Backbone:
């Protein structure tokens, strides 16, 4: 199998999923790049995780009030779902349509919202925005349940425009006015949440959306230049046909799936890193009738995505660090105790899943890294990559051994870098790793003692690779 | 004017009361998976809880009238601890046996919660276990262990000596796919909740296949991952139809008789909890005005037992309670 096929497939599986073992990368490469993209884009054609088994062995994940159980359940899916892009897209929307447990105070509602992202995240953007606006969790999180015809709360109306669709501005202009915010909020009055059972004594009932026509402002409104008796769904229709929405989505997709962009507040004044790519995605948005899956298909099959220039051009998010490491080493590939501790790791690395810091979400790219989070990232990955009892690490040892009866330090380093990625590193990094390997000379694995030392040195080298700057990129 | 039962048996059932509420310790349960009945209406409820709330993993000892007695066991792998407890059963000497499907062992306790012994080893050979699920003890004190990932039922002495086995993986008669609960009939027949085949299978005590009841679905006599099964003195079969959120009752021949979907009314422990939370009393009242049935219904009934008094007890897993019914001896005005 050609090295470039493996490298490209590994790139696709890192971006459209949470990485993969070498066996899986090679299997997908054999199936072909385009076929793999199609499979990723059509999750319903793939088997899902076995929900009945999850519920049997982890019954507390079901209708779980505890946020920790919902985070565990999601992390399990990131690690194990054959529908990798569906989980990656759910994370994408969670990072844009931010709502958090700190206010919602119901793990179950957060889990329901993430499921909504799974169910609608690759369909029509109009449908997704409508589902978001029908989400009782979001209606509560952004105070729409406190927005009334006679006493307006602008929070949801503002964030729908600023953070969920149009964005503040593009090409140096502003995309909407303060009047548009007020009108938007008026259109969503009456979009509310039905009463729900409290947590005690037998558990909450799921929250349900409820429209209250008596509390809805159905008077005439002018929004983005259009006048009518708009309600929330009309606002979404108008929002979806704006060029700014296409730009907003295109830049988000590029930033998440292709290469790190400047942070969102800079988008009004800072042009995209790759204007042609953004234009291509914007065109697909309109040509497809606002279809997210169509935009993703164009993105993953484009030259700009396949380009070697964008490989390892993104700092991995904490969720990618954790799920990707477990997929590489082959741990928690079935339901088992111990996932709670691991599910806390993204939080330690700066990403408290289901509880973003604000409605603006997390700052991405190099802002994932500070002195504290870097130590967490390195410690987590190096602990796992250095554990030669892990099935994925055993496979790496076996593959290295299959390279020959004796390996030079340089070949050994190249082999390790290849099998954890293939990971692209700079010359300085490669020289440092090779210099370390040279201290113990060539590697053989003929005798039991040699094999044990070969295995030990592999674990040690993988730990060192996990500590490189390059390993922080995906 | 004639009365029409349309060929159905004229069995009726009346809701009695509920036991329990959501708690990690003390007067309530957390993700309960099974329970055992002792003398004087003492009930031993096996709480699975979850690893980030290990304080919830134990056995709650109380009565069917909600007198709290004690709790025992904790999370871990040491003697007397549990990781993934699945089933609890009591023998005639009032010893309790608790299966743990992560540790692949059966732990034995006195009725007062004192750890006595353990047995079971991991594997697929005779007498070895891979995710033991349901437990049942016959009148001759034989222990039946549903050995779920080995797709079989194994028989042991009460101290763990292997006696025999039956069942193998598959979907044909007598074959099993990740079975879970088990119940014994008055004639010694063995009923197994064939979980992933969505059916109940009946065997003789020595493992000869006798009958298969049900298929996948949510219609009459169909099941969605049934996990609990028991048989009353009349031979009627009660099935916890887990993912259909109901209990189905079958005649001894396997014909559908009736179903229960839950009739819960606040238990005393539930009232006590609300009494100290007036805001939740208000929220509950508003919610009940909108949806009076939510709180009544079963949510993933997980185990079911009958006793010699015509009582049927349903462990209402997600709601952390037991709903009790009686089998009516006389017609009851609904």
Residues:
């Amino acid at each position: 199998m050609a090295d470039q096929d493996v490298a490209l497939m590994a790139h696709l599986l890192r971006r459209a999923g949470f990485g993969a073992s070498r066996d899986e990368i090679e299997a997908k490469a054999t199936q072909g790049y385009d076929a793999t993209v199609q499979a990723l884009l059509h999750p319903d054609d793939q088997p899902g995780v076995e929900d009945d088994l999850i519920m049997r062995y982890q019954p507390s994940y079901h209708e779980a009030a505890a946020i920790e159980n919902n985070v565990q359940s999601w992390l399990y899916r990131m690690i194990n779902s054959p529908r990798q892009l569906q989980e990656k897209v759910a994370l994408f929307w969670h990072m844009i349509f931010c709502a958090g447990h700190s206010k919602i105070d119901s793990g179950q509602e957060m889990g329901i919202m993430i499921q909504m992202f799974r169910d609608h995240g690759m369909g029509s953007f109009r449908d997704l925005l409508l589902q978001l606006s029908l989400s009782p969790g979001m209606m509560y999180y952004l105070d729409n349940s406190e927005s009334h015809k006679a006493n307006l709360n602008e929070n949801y109306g503002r964030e729908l425009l600023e953070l969920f669709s149009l964005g503040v501005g593009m090409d140096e202009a502003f995309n909407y006015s303060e009047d548009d915010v007020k009108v938007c909020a008026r259109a969503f009055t009456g979009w509310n949440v039905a009463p729900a059972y409290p947590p005690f004594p037998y558990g909450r009932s799921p929250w349900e959306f409820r429209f209250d026509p008596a509390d809805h402002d159905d008077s005439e409104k002018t929004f983005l230049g259009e006048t009518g008796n708009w309600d929330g769904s009309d606002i979404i229709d108008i929002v979806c046909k704006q060029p700014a929405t296409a730009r907003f989505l295109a830049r988000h997709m590029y930033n998440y799936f292709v290469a790190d962009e400047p942070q969102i507040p800079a988008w009004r004044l800072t042009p995209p890193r790759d204007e042609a790519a953004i234009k291509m995605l914007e065109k697909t948005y309109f040509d497809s009738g606002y279809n997210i899956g169509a935009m993703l298909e164009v993105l993953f099959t484009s030259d700009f995505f396949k380009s070697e220039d964008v490989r390892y051009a993104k700092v991995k998010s904490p969720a990618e660090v954790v799920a990707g490491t477990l997929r590489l080493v082959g741990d928690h590939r079935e339901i088992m105790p111990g996932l709670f501790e691991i599910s806390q790791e993204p939080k330690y690395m700066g990403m408290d899943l289901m509880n973003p810091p604000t409605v603006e979400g997390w700052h991405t790219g190099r802002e994932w890294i500070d002195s504290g989070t870097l130590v967490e990232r390195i410690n987590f990955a190096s602990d796992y990559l250095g554990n030669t009892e892990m099935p994925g690490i055993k496979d790496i040892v076996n593959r290295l051994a299959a390279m020959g009866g004796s390996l030079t330090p340089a070949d050994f380093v190249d082999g390790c870098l290849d099998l954890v990625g293939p990971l692209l590193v700079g010359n300085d990094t490669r020289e440092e790793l090779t210099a370390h390997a040279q201290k113990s000379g060539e590697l053989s694995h003929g005798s039991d003692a040699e094999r044990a030392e070969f295995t030990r040195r592999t674990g040690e080298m993988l730990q060192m690779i996990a500590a490189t700057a390059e390993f922080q990129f995906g | 004017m004639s009365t029409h039962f349309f060929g159905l048996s004229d069995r009726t059932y009346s809701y009695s009361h509920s036991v329990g509420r959501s708690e990690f310790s003390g007067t309530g349960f957390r993700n309960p998976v099974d329970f055992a009945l002792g003398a004087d209406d003492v009930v031993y409820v096996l709480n699975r809880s979850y690893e980030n709330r290990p304080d919830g993993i134990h056995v709650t000892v109380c009565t069917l009238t909600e007198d709290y007695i004690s709790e025992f066991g904790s999370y871990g792998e040491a003697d007397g601890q549990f990781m993934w407890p699945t089933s609890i059963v009591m023998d005639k000497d009032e010893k309790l046996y608790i299966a743990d499907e992560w540790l692949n062992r059966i732990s034995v306790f006195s009725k007062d919660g004192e750890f006595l012994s353990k047995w079971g080893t991991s594997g697929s050979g005779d007498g070895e276990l891979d995710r033991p699920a349901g437990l049942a003890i016959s009148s001759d004190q034989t222990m039946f262990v549903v050995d779920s990932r080995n797709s079989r039922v194994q028989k042991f002495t009460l101290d763990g000596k292997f006696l025999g086995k039956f069942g193998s993986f598959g979907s044909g008669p007598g074959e099993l796919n990740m079975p879970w609960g088990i119940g014994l009939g008055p004639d010694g027949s063995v009923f197994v909740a064939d979980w992933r085949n969505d059916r109940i299978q009946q065997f003789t005590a020595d493992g000869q296949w006798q009958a298969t009841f049900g298929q996948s679905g949510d219609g009459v006599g169909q099941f969605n991952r049934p996990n609990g099964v028991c048989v009353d003195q009349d031979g009627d079969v009660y099935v916890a139809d887990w993912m259909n959120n109901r209990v189905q009752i079958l005649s001894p021949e396997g014909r559908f008789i009736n179903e229960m979907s839950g009739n819960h009314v606040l238990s005393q422990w539930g009232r006590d909890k609300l009494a100290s939370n007036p805001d939740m009393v208000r929220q509950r009242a508003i919610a009940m005005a909108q949806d009076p049935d939510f709180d009544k219904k079963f949510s993933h009934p997980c185990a079911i037992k009958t006793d010699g008094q015509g009582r049927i007890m349903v462990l209402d897993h997600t709601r952390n309670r037991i709903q009790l019914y009686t089998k009516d001896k006389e017609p009851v005005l609904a």
